[in-house]
Amino acid sequence: MIASQEDQDVLAVYFRPVSTVAYILSLGVVQEYRRVGIASLLLDSLIRQLTTPEAVHCKALFLHVLTSNSSAIRFYENRNFKLQAFLPYYYAINGQFRDGFSYVLYINGGHPPWGPTDYIKYGLGVLGRLDPCSWPSRLLHNARSVVPSIFTSLARGTMALGK
Ligand SMILES: CC(C)(COP(=O)(O)OP(=O)(O)OC[C@H]1O[C@@H](n2cnc3c(N)ncnc32)[C@H](O)[C@@H]1OP(=O)(O)O)[C@@H](O)C(=O)NCCC(=O)NCCS
C-alpha cells in the first residue's frame, strides 16, 4: 500500500490494488563500521527476500532521504535506486524544515506511471515489431506465386477453347 499523497506516483496505477511496495524506514551503520559493506549486505539481503516468488506482488522498494545526505544518496544510487521525486520541506528536524528526495528501485517487473512519451515509445515499439518493411517483400512473394497460376489457368482456358 502507498500511504502518503507524495508517494502515489511510485508505481503505475494499473498495478493496484494487488501489488505492494516495500519501504525502507531506516538504514544506519555505526560510524566506525561504515564503508566496509555492512549496509550493502543488509540491502542485498532485503532485495533477495523481495525478489523470491512469494514476494512477486511487491513491485518497488522505496525510501526518503534528506537532500543533504550525500553519502546515503551515493549509496542508493550505486545500488541502482532512481530518484523519484524532490520533496520540499519534507522533513521537520529540530523545528526546521528540510528538503527530501524519494528514491525507488523497481523489482519484479514494477515500473513508474507512464507519461505521454512512454505511450508514444510503446506504440512505436509495437509498430516496429509488426515489421512493416517486410510487407512489400511478402506481397511480392505472394504475387509471384499467384501470377504464374493465373497464367496457367488462362493458358488452360485458351487450350480448352481451341480444342
Ligand atoms: C548510508 C549508510 C547506511 C551506508 O552504510 P555503509 O555500511 O557505510 O555502506 P557500504 O559500506 O555498504 O557502502 C556501499 C557503497 O555506498 C557508497 N557510499 C557509502 N557511504 C559513502 C560515503 N560516505 N561517501 C560516498 N559514497 C558512499 C559507496 O559507493 C560505497 O561503496 P565503496 O565503499 O566501495 O565506495 C551509512 O553511511 C549510514 O549509516 N549513514 C547514516 C544513516 C543514514 O543516513 N542512513 C540512510 C537514511 S535513508
TrEMBL record:
Entry's EC annotation: 2.3.1.259, 2.3.1.48
GO biological process, one term: chromosome segregation
Gene Ontology CC terms: Golgi membrane
Lineage, broadest ranks: Eukaryota, Metazoa, Ecdysozoa, Arthropoda, Crustacea
Gene3D superfamilies, A to Z: 3.40.630.30
N-acetyltransferase domain ranges (all copies): 1-108
Protein name: N-alpha-acetyltransferase 60
MF terms in GO: histone acetyltransferase activity; protein N-terminal-methionine acetyltransferase activity
Domain of life: Eukaryota
Organism whose genome encodes this protein: Notodromas monacha
Annotated catalysed reactions: N-terminal L-methionyl-[transmembrane protein] + acetyl-CoA = N-terminal N(alpha)-acetyl-L-methionyl-[transmembrane protein] + CoA + H(+); L-lysyl-[protein] + acetyl-CoA = N(6)-acetyl-L-lysyl-[protein] + CoA + H(+)
InterPro entries referenced in this protein's UniProt entry, alphabetically: Acyl_CoA_acyltransferase, GNAT_dom, NAA60-like
Keyword entries, A-Z: Acyltransferase, Chromatin regulator, Chromosome partition, Transferase
Annotated family: Belongs to the acetyltransferase family. NAA60 subfamily.
PROSITE patterns membership: GNAT
